Amino acid sequence: MDELAYYLGMPAHGALAVVVSTVVLYSAITSLLSRAGQRLYASPSSLDLAVVTVLGAIVGRSILGQVPTLSGGLLALGTLFVVEGLAGRVRRSERMSRRRRHRAVAVMVAGHVQRHELHRLGLDESVLWSALRCAGVRGPHEVSLVVVEPDGRFSVLKVGETVHPAALTGVRHSGELLDQLAQSGDRAQ
């Protein structure tokens, strides 16, 4: 045990504490951000950015323990890379991809704002209209479909553009959306 402490620059129980706290806090933060992430990415306010910064500081300090050391920091970084690599494999697995397949959400269909979807995502119409302005939209009559992607970006499909069913892969209720677009006179292929 003393030999391990010599090579790590910390006692074995300290190294174990760094590894365990890194894994636990990584899990807690990724869980938190996966629940609130889409809203945070779509409309990051100054307060949201401050909260994420404070969370990062708390997590970093908590991982390193009472006396931060270089070896503890390197061990925490290594553990984070390993855990992120494992989490990436899990996310890519078929079971998880099926579960996450419908994370994109339509918030405007055929010029009509889907307020219940905006509300569910924790967004308001000002964020939607900001994205529409960025896409060059001047009014709701120009919009066929607006989708909030899993990473929080807005995808805007304008009236008159053909919407192939594959374009709605991963969007919640994609079949119903195609029907709504067809009924509204927008072209669905």
TrEMBL record:
Subcellular location: Cell membrane
Record domain YetF C-terminal: where: 94-161
The protein, known as: Uncharacterized membrane protein YcaP (DUF421 family)
Keyword field contains Transmembrane: yes
InterPro entries, sorted: DUF421, UPF0702_alpha/beta_dom_sf
The keyword Transmembrane helix appears for this protein: yes
Entry similarity comment: Belongs to the UPF0702 family.
Record's GO cellular component terms: plasma membrane
Gene3D superfamilies: bsu07140 like domains
Membrane topology annotation: Multi-pass membrane protein
Transmembrane regions listed in the UniProt entry: 12-33, 45-64, 70-90
Entry keywords, A to Z: Cell membrane, Membrane, Transmembrane, Transmembrane helix
Signal peptide: none
